[in-house]
Amino acid sequence: MNSIPSVIDLVVNNDLCIGCGLCTYKCPNNALGMEWNDYGFFVPVQIGACNNAGACLSVCPFNPEPEKEVQTEDELSDIFLSDAISSHPKIGKYNGIYVGYSNEFRLTSSSGGIATFVLTNLLERGIIQHIFSVKESDIHGTHYEYAISNSKQELIAGSKTKYYPVTLSSVFDKIDELEGKVAIVGVACFIKAIRLAQHSNPSLKKKITFLVGIICGGVKSRFFTEYLSSSAGVTKDLYYKPEFRIKDTSSTAGDYSFGCFSKKDNQKKTVKMKSVGDMWGTGLFKANACDYCDDVTTELADISLGDAWLSPFMQDGKGTNVIVTRSTLAEKVIIDGINAGKIQLEKLSLDRFLDSQKGSFNHRHTGLPYRIKQANKNGLVVPPKRIDRCGSSTLDFRIVQYYRMKVRIISLDMWKDNADSTIFNDKMKRILSTLKRFTTIYHYKRALFSKDVLNKIACRLRS
Ligand SMILES: Cc1cc2nc3c(=O)[nH]c(=O)nc-3n(C[C@H](O)[C@H](O)[C@H](O)COP(=O)(O)OP(=O)(O)OC[C@H]3O[C@@H](n4cnc5c(N)ncnc54)[C@H](O)[C@@H]3O)c2cc1C
């Protein structure tokens, strides 16, 4: 009997897996376990007999054949965030949009420390007793993983962004044994997987009372950390305690460094991210699944948090968050925090918020129909997407997409064979400069034909 395909047949074998690991929790036979693949990502592997009932697929955020009632983020948000007062096709359901930071946690966090503030607040109020967030794996800090915190001190130890593959499978193994309520921090696809699990298992709805959504520009392979360590002068087997967002409080928010320790001399080595080139707009070391994600702002979380890549906030190297509250509880935590003087926030207009994630909207909405077309052409399956909100793209932007997809694949293959940043940079130089050339043409044309410029020309012609 092999009636329903498994997550391995439909998702892993189509390179759509993001490694969230909820399939391992959902499998009634414990037939799945998580392992590193050859490209530095976590994927499920079969470790026991499959009952062929497809439970694993029901929680997969990239399931190409989901049930109609939970087909996309739209259906799921109708189920989980029905109380939200506003909605917008680009960002989903929401209550309020803010920008600002936490007095207490700003300097020890990646952006403004609002994630740590919200979670601490929920813990102190007794609304939750446990938090699943991403922390160092062991005392040597060789890698990161999801871990359970039960106190403020434990939670703070897990602050800061880790651009490192993680999986929820290790903590979900323990969720049924935990007494009390749980909050979880995660990027959009992980949050979607949790919502799917809550949908099919009402006890999880009661147990997981709050989701902190991390706005995500793409999940990177472990190779990304190895590359940055190598760029800082530490070879891939010798780094420990990688740190992705070392702030320079005397500079701008974007002027941060990567750092890690070397096992050779136990010294910390750092490298300015500006010096390694564009790691986000190029697709380097990114998971393929991210190219089929249209949830830019973590639409299914109670609260979504990102970096305020907006003037004047990005001029402040101490870091600032953009914040979208979606549930009533999230809005209350934020309003109470403002009133108590614990967080410094101001309202942000929808347009300004959209502007703060402009690059991600361009790539993941405007570029998506082209990428889906390419995938279909190559006989690959793609999960149902809300392409009605994506808009149309110009030829020059489609060329940029073509090269980004190429850079993504080539970077992973290249690092697998040459785990040294000097060799890698040399081998990637040609394709990266081609991508840069087409990106410059696209940016130039976009600026030339922007609404502002066209309005100015129209005004001149009229006068
Ligand atoms: C992979 C990734 C890509 C991102 N891309 C963007 C982007 O394109 N645009 C943007 O505006 N913001 C992006 N961010 C979010 C940004 O870096 C901050 O995490 C966010 O603004 C919250 O900042 P904070 O100061 O409030 O968080 P903090 O108070 O520092 O707390 C961060 C919380 O996130 C948890 N965490 C860290 N790494 C991970 C992870 N990999 N998965 C799940 N939880 C994690 C920590 O355990 C901690 O609880 C990204 C984050 C990640 C992890």
Automatic annotation (TrEMBL):
Keyword Iron-sulfur part of the UniProt annotation: yes
Domain 4Fe-4S ferredoxin-type residues, every copy: 8-37
Name of the featured protein: 4Fe-4S dicluster domain-containing protein
Provenance organism: Labilibaculum euxinus
One Pfam family cited in the UniProt record for this chain: Fer4_7
Superkingdom of this protein's organism: Bacteria
Keyword Metal-binding: yes
Keywords per UniProt: Iron, Iron-sulfur, Metal-binding
Annotated InterPro entries: 4Fe4S_Fe-S-bd, 4Fe4S_Fe_S_CS, Co_F420_Hydgase/DH_bsu_N, FRHB/FDHB/HCAR-like, FrhB_FdhB_C
Molecular function GO terms recorded: iron-sulfur cluster binding; metal ion binding; oxidoreductase activity, acting on CH or CH2 groups, with an iron-sulfur protein as acceptor
